[in-house]
């Protein structure tokens, strides 16, 4: 019924907000599926383990990109589409824009090139709304440092310049898809962030309702 993705650099706080939003929407009577990428089901979680393992530092950028997309295909077909068909709200912690920002832009494979691959593999499945949790890479790094080193995955451990490039990549995507991607100020308090997120969700629900009435 409604597909919302959460995007941002590592340490932007999106996962915490996704969990709180799930509870809020559930209390309003919605069936809510909170899931994440890479992962969300058994096969995709196995792919996640390969991609994020610190042992695999020699992974080729294309191998990395195709594994993320492979995990996404499994996730879309096994979980996301069935949930949307049942009328659920799907909250997905990262989706196709992560591949565009991390592999397309920061790894240099090209946003356009990966758009083409993703549209071949995923067809027209895309979020109704994407929330970008905006925080400067240096501030996000500070939050990440509060985590224990052994909780960090291969991507978390990338150099600061990589995370800065990812942030730049997201700015490109935001300017190209301003109708779908909404920017949330992630430096604000949790309550303020939740309020901003709820505003964008109401906006998209009203729009979708309007489209339905026009049919
Ligand atoms: P997470 O830490 O948000 O669970 O995401 C795992 C890491 O994988 C994170 O550093 C972002 C990265 N990532 C990509 O590089 N490309 C993708 O397509 C996805 C979904 C995640």
Quantity of strands, as a count: 5
Give the low-pLDDT segments: none
Distinct ligand kinds? thymidine-5'-phosphate
Give the number of domains: 1
Report the CATH superfamily. Answer: P-loop containing nucleotide triphosphate hydrolases
Number of helices: 8
Radius of gyration: 17 Å
Characterize the biggest β-sheet.
5 strands, parallel
List the strand order in the largest sheet: 2-3-1-4-5
Helicity range: 55-70%
Strand content: 5-15%
How would you characterize the overall build of this protein?
Its EC number is 2.7.4.9. There is one protein chain. Helix 2 packs antiparallel against helix 3. The protein has a 5-stranded parallel sheet with strand order 2-3-1-4-5, sandwiched between helices. The model has no long low-confidence stretch (mean pLDDT 95). The chain has helices spanning 14-27, 42-52, 61-86, 96-106, 111-122, 137-145, 160-176, 190-214, and strands at 2-7, 32-36, 89-93, 129-134, 181-185. It has 215 residues and is an alpha/beta fold. It has a single domain (3-35, 81-211), classed as P-loop containing nucleotide triphosphate hydrolases (Rossmann fold, 3-Layer(aba) Sandwich), CATH 3.40.50.300. The protein binds thymidine-5'-phosphate. Residues 10, 36-38, 52, 68, 94, 98-99, 102-103, 155-156 line the site of thymidine-5'-phosphate. Thymidine-5'-phosphate (TMP) binds at residues 10, 36-38, 52, 68, 94, 98-99, 102-103, 155-156.
